[in-house]
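Lab channel / #folding
Pinned by the channel admin:
"Please post every new chain as: sequence first, then the structure tokens as a reply. Keep commentary short and put observations after the output so the thread stays searchable."

First post following the new format, from NK:
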Amino acid sequence: MRTIRLFLALLILAIPAVSFGQIGIRVAIGPPMLPVYEQPACPGDGYMWTPGYWGYDDSVSDYYWIPGTWVEAPEEGFLWTPGYWGWGEGGYFFNDGYWGETIGFYGGVNYGFGYWGGGYGGGRWDHGHFFYNSSVNNLRGGDFHNVYNESVENNTENRVSFNGGRGGIEARPTAEQESARGQRHIAAVEAQTAHAQAARNNPAQRASVNRGNPAVAATAKPGEFNQEHGPNGTKESVASARDGSGNAASDARPAVHPRDLSPISRPARVSSGNAKADSKYEQRQDRLIAKQSTERQNLQQKQDAEHQQKANANQQKLEQRHQKQTQQLVQRHSQQQQSLQARQPQPRSPGGGGRR
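Reply from TO:
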């Protein structure tokens, strides 16, 4: 009986979402850090900023980045509460975003551009008109009359993208945010779901390919993936952008062979205040990178040998198989790195305590 219950529990965790917007599975490893990017200029009055976030594609077992974008509010007086990843029952699951008259809880995640983690400071409705806060919104080039300037809390150093679990944000909803949950909501509009689907279908948006730095991090309008804002404030076209593995993303195709991948990059060194724990973690990073580099070399040698042995074979099918092998290797290495980073030493609290 215990065996049957365990099997049913695991089966429930593996059931995919019944709709695109809801991640109906639990993922063992939390999403990557939020990338740093520049907000495109607002297209015009009535558009609301909806921040970018990580989705999860269970068909390839990989996170993918859904670019931030400007979206027209479905109703007058409505604001966007972003979705967020939370921890529960042994895994990370996604809580859908929604439109409503009041901003609700979104995990305490600092998405930027007015979404500082505990509310929204990017704008407000007043007598049927939306007023933009120019301190956090890019209003360049537009003729905006409903504008004000107000400073907003913005700790850009914290780019954690999930709530709860190891290394997650420890925010909890306030009474006001709890009450907002019971108000009338409108789910993501069609333009948003189509935008998210386009990101899901673009291999260059996957974390295993871009290593947390998507080529397209934000767009001016939903679905506009041609000339948009990349990570770190750069503006680049998809045709000239490079994905996280160093490959040109002109055709959005993954690398075919390990030699097509850029060298494995080493994550930034941690400085938690515990020198012994930091040193031990860095040694684990060194061993993991060395192991993954060897696995790349071994797979490349195997693929080279197959090319020599099957010179007269169907090269297209052979390349397709090699591409699949390479992407499986990339995804496995990405999951290994995320798993290790989830266990990195945490900064000590000012009082000398904190998690260990």
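NK: The CA atoms of residues 60 and 323 lie 14 Å apart.
TO: also worth noting, The chain has two domains: 12-237, 258-341.
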